Amino acid sequence: MIAAFITIACVLATMLAPWIAPFNPFDPTQISLWDGKLPPSWIEGGQAQYILGTDNQGRDMLSTILYGGRLSIIVGIAAVCLGMALGVILGVISGYFGGAVDAIIMRIADIQLTIPGILLAILINGIGRTLLPLEMREDFAIYVVIFAIGLTDWPQFARVTRGATLVESQKEYVQAARVIGLPRWLIIVRHILPNVMRPVLVIATIGLALAIISEATLSFLGQGIPPTTPSLGTLIRVGNEYLFSGLWWITLFPAAALVVLVFAVNLLGDWMRDALNPKLR
Amino acid sequence: MATENTLLDVANLSIQFPTRRGIIDAARDININLQPGEVLGLVGESGAGKSTIGNAIVNLLEKPGRISNGSIKFQGQELRELDDDAMRKVRGDRIGMIFQDPQTSLNPLLRIGEQLTETIKKSLAVSDKEAHERALDLLVAVGITQPEARLKAYPHQFSGGMRQRVVIALALAGEPELIIADEPTTALDVSIQAQILDLIKDLCKTRNLGVIIVTHDIGVIANIADRVAVMYRGAIVETGPVNQILNSPQHPYTTSLIAAVPPTDRKLHRFNSVDYIDGSDSSNEAKRIDVSTHWLGEQNDLKSPDGVAVSVNNLKLSFVLQNAIFKRNRKTLQAVDDVSFSIADGETFGLVGESGSGKSTVARLIVGLHKPQSGQIRVMGNEVELHKQDEKSLAARRALQMIFQDPYSSLNGRLKVLDIVAEPIRFFKMASSEKQTRSIVQDLLDHVGLGAAAAMRYPHEFSGGQRQRISIARALASRPRILICDEPTSALDVSIQAQILNLLKDLQEELGLTMLFISHDLPVVRQMCDKVAVMRSGAICEIAETETLFESPQHEYTKHLLELMPKM
């Protein structure tokens, strides 16, 4: 119960950032460079309106974290949806048809799994950026990141889906559908997909947490979201530069927010797993 | 009846399972006792609580079950007072257990010898050498030849029956005084079942053991037990010597349970159903319909030109067990070997054989789930290739439907019953509107004895027998002419079996269906079928009219199978 409460509070807070955050970090009129690098309000030198202090550009930390968390969640969900869609489609095809199709898809997945995910994401991200015209890079950076993370995590989904499909397609209800004479695509859509989605959703929630971390890592490495758009990763990177000059709050608070967010997403996943089970309803 | 040398005395035992919806009484006021050298049969249908009692005696109740009342005295000692450690010793050394599935009750990674000697050393504290000697003796005692070589084998190198013998040897390893066997032969073929039962009975007499045998099968009880306790919904309704219970049962439940076992020696018009069901409505009986006006009777002009509904010629199929690039290195299994038969319009054709005989594969070939390597299948006079999606094959498909063995996996749990049954109607566009589809589905459900309200529920809300009815409704929904039933009742209790078989018989009569009935259960086949084919390792041994086959079997294998039929 307490866990559920923290989760909901966390997700709601970031989703409702535009309405509840005290400042808007995207509005230049609310940012004053004079207020830059202020410590949290309870430390000497802090100001009451900046509860968690300000960053190097004078943005309120609390507001920036809320907006950044929102961006991280959106990027994470979009990336997981992309990876899941790709992985589930390829996995079902692989599992149901078998043979050469199966071999080709699964070998591609195997090859991709030998390359560390973050390296691949950096590669895809880099290629994606260079393909875009210069003036669009800033605006489309988010989509490129989503694409990069989505493309790196499809093999997990494909593997799980393939395994579940192999099990389900041996069951008698699928055979009954074949006896009726239903075409294969209809059997896949109506009978197999709904029954393989449960394990897929379970890894999707783990995948969501991982995608948020991936996004933060990419941004931390300066490969993801540009610093003008705050995400948790960019904030940590900016703070990192000031860490040894005693401005610890710029790094610590976003990092703590990231930990809580990932933890909350995992709890949400656990809860969703039970809620989606028709037998427990 | 408890005397000084009573081995086990269970008095007033009650077991409860607290659940979120209240406390379930799994067993109420159970009184049983057992003398050394005696076999007690505990018989009842699934959910009667018979396994629960077996587990309670050895303190292996599944959580959150608990013993709420009563005593379990084993050789005068109260087992309920023992702590976990002492109980574990009793379990290994003095009470042996035999479980249902020999596939899972042995550790697949350890050699038979290691498993045996380990158990012997643990409970008897003897040297390695003596443990080895004892293991050899045990294998001999359970009838395993070449024990020295067999000790070095892994469980997967044994057949099902041999594995169950090893499990029995393991149960005997600690030299127990009591053996609890929970459905020891349910997973085995008839011929092996008889051997295992003989073995248990023999061991019981020679070693003066007490044996409790838990089973749903009255035939097993008739073969092995000295005394019987009949369980119904958590209570023992009747106890007595086996002859008395079988020949002059006192309780109405026992009477109907015995009557529901199909007789082996004569043919009845209908199966006797277990009509003793308290606390539930007995409106399960299907409604009769008038075929000339009913939806199911429409378009019944799909008649075959020569009066043959299905004919199969020289069907062959082999499965690849081990693939290799070169043909000579491949290992194959000839699942169906040159099978030919034909089924006349409106006939029920039985296909019997033990597991692995290829009878299910034949059914799957006919409905197009497998592609034959050679041979023809003709449905309604047309040669069809059912694995194809062209128009001719689809028409043949509509005429041909199948009822599967396992009602728990044959329905898609994500769909409502309405959508499951409506699937063929929608696919073949047999109804003009969604409203008509709905009313047809409700009518079908009513007709198979479920009631129209079932349409809006999900499959997991139904019991095994009810699910099988849904499965039948789905098969009827494409207005088939030929119904293929692959062991339709082997996953069900005797009482439910009778209901489902009667339903199938009624439907066949009303609609003039042709039926291919696949079963390993000879008494059932005798009741259901007009003609029977006996299969063994992929080939047909004998085809004959049912009565001829049962009265004067020609083939040696048929004679052998008939001899093994449990007699009561």
Account of the protein in words:
The complex is a heterodimer of chains A (281) and B (568). Chain A has a single domain (2-10, 73-275), classed as MetI-like (MetI-like fold, Orthogonal Bundle). In chain A, 72% of the residues lie in helices and 0% in strands. The mean pLDDT of chain A is 81. Chain A is built from eleven helices and no strands. Chain A has 281 residues and is mostly helical. Chain B is built from 19 helices and 20 strands. Chain B has helices spanning 50-57, 84-93, 112-124, 128-141, 147-150, 160-172, 190-207, 218-224, 242-247, 252-260, 359-366, 391-399, 417-427, 434-447, 464-476, 494-511, 522-528, 546-551, 556-564; strands at 8-19, 22-34, 39-43, 66-74, 77-78, 95-98, 178-182, 210-215, 227-232, 235-241, 308-322, 331-344, 348-352, 374-379, 382-383, 400-403, 482-486, 514-519, 531-536, 539-545. In chain B, the strands form four sheets. Chain B has a six-stranded mixed β-sheet with strand order 6-7-8-3-9-10, with helices on both faces. In chain B, a hairpin with a 2-residue loop joins strand 1 and strand 2 (22-34). The model of chain B is unreliable at 277-284 (pLDDT under 50). Classes of the chains: A mainly alpha (281), B alpha/beta (568). The interface between A and B is medium-sized, with 19 and 30 residues.
Please give a quick description of this structure:
Chain A has 11 helices and no strands. By secondary structure, chain A is mostly helical.
Layout of helices and strands, plus pairs?
The complex is a heterodimer of chains A (281) and B (568).
Chain A: H1 2-15, H2 17-20, H3 61-97, H4 99-114, H5 117-131, H6 137-152, H7 154-169, H8 172-180, H9 184-220, H10 232-242, H11 249-275
Helix pairs in contact in A: 1-3, 1-11, 3-4, 3-6, 3-7, 3-9, 3-11, 4-7, 5-6, 6-9, 7-9, 8-9, 9-10, 9-11, 10-11
Chain B: E1 8-19, E2 22-34, E3 39-43, H1 50-57, E4 66-74, E5 77-78, H2 84-93, E6 95-98, H3 112-124, H4 128-141, H5 147-150, H6 160-172, E7 178-182, H7 190-207, E8 210-215, H8 218-224, E9 227-232, E10 235-241, H9 242-247, H10 252-260, E11 308-322, E12 331-344, E13 348-352, H11 359-366, E14 374-379, E15 382-383, H12 391-399, E16 400-403, H13 417-427, H14 434-447, H15 464-476, E17 482-486, H16 494-511, E18 514-519, H17 522-528, E19 531-536, E20 539-545, H18 546-551, H19 556-564
Parallel strand pairs in B: 3-8, 3-9, 6-7, 7-8, 13-18, 13-19, 16-17, 17-18
Antiparallel strand pairs in B: 1-2, 1-4, 4-5, 9-10, 11-12, 11-14, 14-15, 19-20
Helix pairs in contact in B: 3-4, 4-6, 6-7, 13-14, 13-15, 14-15, 15-16
